[in-house]
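wait is this the right file?? whatever heres the structure
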């Protein structure tokens, strides 16, 4: 897997700030494997009509 390289120096693209606004309880649940952040990211991309590469594929029914 290739390491993520932000397209700009914007804070919103900086992975160091990814979990900054997340509640501690959610961070603990992620750490314990009770929440799968990868699965949530996949679901969010699908909800936006994007594939796993961030390309527009439209909204599937």
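ok assuming it is, sequence goes like this
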């Amino acid at each position: 897997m290739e390491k993520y390289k932000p397209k700009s120096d914007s804070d919103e693209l900086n992975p160091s700030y990814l979990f900054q606004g997340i509640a501690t309880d959610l961070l603990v649940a992620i750490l314990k494997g009770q929440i799968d952040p990868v699965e949530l990211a996949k679901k969010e991309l699908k909800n936006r009509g994007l594939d796993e590469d961030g390309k527009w594929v439209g909204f599937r029914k």
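DSSP finds two helices and no strands in the chain. so i think its the right one actually
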